[in-house]
Design goal:
four-stranded antiparallel β-sheet; globular; eleven-stranded mixed β-sheet; 333 residues; 8 helices; alpha+beta; Pseudouridine synthase; disordered C terminus; single chain; Structural Genomics Hypothetical 15.5 Kd Protein In mrcA-pckA Intergenic Region, Chain A
């Protein structure tokens, strides 16, 4: 699928859309314009949405809108004409992935879904990836009128992701994330023996200039807070539990690298030589980071959610290999 505007051609297998004006309803009050467009216009890549926003082809009450612009009830959104590929030709998630996602649902009620995301699957599609978790899940549950990501998880990280099934739940979850009302826990394997015990880490993270997808510890950035617990020590590595107090991009990986305990399998912040060596000895082929537990309460419903899952099978195999050459353990807290 191309993300360039295409002129109409005779016999072209495509769907032509004319200019549309959509009035924002209460269900979409406070929603970002980019996410609103992804819902209103099916089968378009996110890069295309950003392109038409950047060019000013989308208007809110006759004014240009940035991707992070939040909509208000009663506003009029102008959606420009465009040519989209025929839905029959649109690339969909394979049935094998849909079956895997169906089996990965951990909890579902009228407000939300907890799902165990596999490593290697981005949470949403983008450049080079026609679909992600959210697109595949919408394909799986095509009858749901609303389903949105409540937060993100890196492509190579496995574990629990929260999906909202209505606007009220989504906004409530966003508020909880901002206020620290959602406890998120991860497991990771780092190089080196962690001797500090329980450790609270607070620093500031900034994006490296010209590299939006990489961050570093540096003054003047956004505050990042985590609590690290050693769970099991091995000859050259330590299995860690991490509680996130904030949710910055690449927070765990960056903080551990700054402490000289790089996450194994991390190709951005880790030690490349160690990663190669560890891959040979254990078979680890990806980032050793797993979101294994969440705890929170939805204020408006009073429902408390608590879910914990085991390590992904490939990561547990690595731990088993390390256990065989273990030189000591730390007691579980």
């Amino acid at each position: 699928m191309t993300d360039k505007l295409q002129p109409s051609k005779p016999n072209q297998s495509s769907t032509k859309q004319s200019v549309r004006f959509v009035t924002v309803t209460e269900a979409h009050d406070g929603q970002r314009i980019d996410n609103f467009l992804m819902r209103e216009v099916k089968d378009i890549p996110r890069s295309f949405v950003y392109r038409i926003l950047r060019k000013g082809e989308v208007r809110v009450d006759k004014k240009r809108a940035k991707p992070n612009r939040k909509l208000k009830v009663g506003e009029s959104v102008r959606i420009p004409p465009m040519i989209l590929p025929d839905k029959k030709q649109s690339k969909k998630a394979p049935q094998q992935l849909l079956d895997q996602l169906e089996q990965s649902i951990l909890l579902e009620d009228k407000d939300l879904i907890l799902i165990n995301k596999p490593a290697g699957l981005a949470v949403h599609g983008g450049t080079g990836s026609p679909y992600g978790l959210i697109e595949a899940f919408r394909q799986l549950r095509s009858t749901l009128p609303f389903v949105e990501l409540a937060h993100r998880l890196d492509k190579d990280t496995s574990g629990i992701v929260i999906l909202a099934k209505n606007r009220k739940a989504l906004l409530s979850l966003h508020d909880l994330f901002k206020s620290g009302g959602i406890d998120k826990y991860y497991q990771t394997l780092v190089h080196g023996q962690w001797e500090a015990g329980r450790q609270y880490v607070r620093n500031t993270l900034v994006c490296e200039r010209g590299r939006k997808q990489k961050v570093q510890v540096q003054e003047g950035g956004k505050v990042a807070e985590s609590i690290f617990y050693p769970r099991q020590k091995f000859a050259k590595t330590t299995l860690m539990e991490v509680k996130l107090l904030t949710g910055r991009m690449h927070q765990i990986r960056t903080q551990l690298a700054a402490l000289d305990f790089p996450v194994l399998g991390d190709t951005q912040y880790g030690d490349f030589a160690l990663n190669r060596e560890f891959k040979k000895s254990t078979g680890l082929k990806r980032l050793f980071l797993h979101a294994f537990k969440v705890e929170f309460k939805l204020p408006y419903s009073g429902t408390t959610y608590k879910k914990e899952i085991p390590l992904a099978e490939d990561l547990q195999q690595v731990v088993n290999i390390e256990s065989r050459r273990d030189t000591g353990r730390v007691k579980k807290r």
